[in-house]
Structures are given as C-alpha cells and as structure tokens.
Amino acid sequence: MDIVFKGKKISGILAVLPETECYFDDEVGNYNFPEKQTMRLKKVMGYNKHRLSKDTSTVSDFAAYGMEYILEKGWIRKEEIGAVLVVTLCPDYYVPHISTIIQGKFELADDVLCLDIAQGCCGFLIGLMESFLLLEHMKDKKIVLINGDVLSHKVSRRDRNDFPLAGDATTITIIENDSQAGDIYYEMHMDGSRGESLIIPAGGFRMPSTPETARMTDQGDGNLRALDHMHMDGAGVFNFVQWEVPPLIDRLLAVAGETIDTVDYFLFHQPNKFMLKKLAEKAGIPLDKIPMDLVENYGNPSGASIPMVAVTDLKKELTSSKYKCCLAAFGSGLAWGGMVLEFGGFENCEMIVSNL
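Now predict its structure.
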C-alpha cells in the first residue's frame, strides 16, 4: 500500500507510563543461565530497566488516565473529538472495546466514532493511516489516537529472550486537518505467512487458555515459558528486518524526493539497540539520526514505540520546530511500513507517570 496524505498534522502527543520501574540487574536471577553470560546481553542489546504495569492494570486504565490529563490541560475539548481510535494487542475484554469504554467514561457524544484495531509493532503507523483517512470526512473534528499495550502480562519472567524487552506504555496522539501541512508519504506491507515469528499461541479461540496452556516448560534452550506467553523468534525477526526495511526506506525517500542527508531524524520502532544499529548500518543511516535508547530506559512498548521516542528523545525539538522525519516500524504480523513527513511543531508533547 502506497499513499500520499495531504493536509493532515499531529498537534500533540502524551505518553503515560506505569510507575513500576524494574532493572535488568535485579532480574538476572530469574533465568536459568550463568549470571556472567546474562550480563553480557546488557551492553549488546541495550538492556537496563523497563516499565511494568500492575497485574490488575489494563490499557483502558492508562488511556483514561491520559485522557483526563489532556482534557484538564485543554489540549482538546470534548466537542472537538470526532473519533477515538485504539490500537492494541491487549483488549480489556472481547466486548466492549476500549474505544467505547473511553467514549462512555468521558461522556463523549454518541456520534463520536469508536474503533479498536488489533496491531502490534506497526500500531502507530496503522493508527495514523486510519486517522488520516477518517479526517477526510470529519471537517473540523479531531482524532484521538491511543496506542497502548500491557504485554508484560503475557511474557514469561523466566524467559531471557523475551522478558528483558517487555515494556508497558500508552500514548495518546491528537491528529487534525491542516490545509498548510506538507505531504505525507506512506508505505505499508504485511506478510501473514511469517506470522508465527512473533506469537502468543494460546488465549484465542484457536487454543483457549487452560491450566495446561499455563504450564511453564523448558523450551530446550534454558528459557521457561507457557503457551499463554508471547514468544519472538529473535533470529527470524532480525533477518526479516534486515531484508525488508532498508529497501522500504530507500523507496519512501525516493518517492518523497528526500535522501538520508536531507532527513533530520529517523524515528523507528524500538526492538533493541543491537537490531537498530545493524539496521542503521544496512540502510546507511548515521547513528546520530536514530534515537535508540528506548529499550534501555523503558523496554519495548510495542505500537507505542515511535510516539514514545518522540516524547523521550525529541520533546524540546518537536515543540519548538518542525523536522523532516522518516518513521518506520516492523514486527508482529509480520508487518513493516514507513512514513516521511514534516514532524513537529507540536502544541503539546509530554510524559506523565501514573500509579497503575
């Protein structure tokens, strides 16, 4: 899918974090590996600490916490909202959807469109695409895009491959029409034949959760997890990213009439520092143009990665000026996509910590 969007802009981003901060050093004893061997991963992969939500917390809790903040601060008025979009892999319930929970909690008008989209790593780009499309029919209304997951609830704490990456976060992005905004170049691809490279086997209708699917077993490599837990084929996803993403970036820049030199920042999904460095080398992107410290400080927040990078690494820049940026995401699905746009000039760009 290749699209050029016109007359659309992001006016604000809020990141909402859980208060619990856990350090990699304190979790080394969770794993069935020698401590010295495990600690080598800290430098290579960029592990240090991550944010984990409470077992009782859900995405709607974080979304409501953030919505209350932006409404109180006057980022947006209720009557300006035309749609609430939620992109998540972690629904509160099968029914009702998180978007309708938020609509009801804040007593938004009944003509506000509520839509939940099941997407992971590419969730921000998918959410932006849907928002831009909806704005074609919403005149002066604005979109509230919520990206959030509590995937730490679905990762085994005894799995050294997956648990150090877990990071919970929710972001709220306000998107609106702007006739003066520059063109936005967008490309997205999906390949379900490789979907099992990142999977939670049990919990859906194909394999409902049972006491048996919750039983932890050694996977033959020293890592313990159950069928209820998420697992990523690290080598498979690494090769997928190296093979698919650099050509995607080349195509996007060519269509947008840009080059690596003319792009100010490359804001990418954050799987880990090692993968990002290798991607930068393959794509020929200078390391100083790619923020890559998110996993080190917060973990991998799935579809909230890109807005989290904007808030944590470039808040000052993005609230004072606009920059030519390339956004790219890749992962669950498998899916990969990108966007070239003028990014910044935000009215608001903040992070808050909840008690959830």
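The domain at 2-177 is CATH 3.40.47.10 (Peroxisomal Thiolase; Chain A, domain 1).
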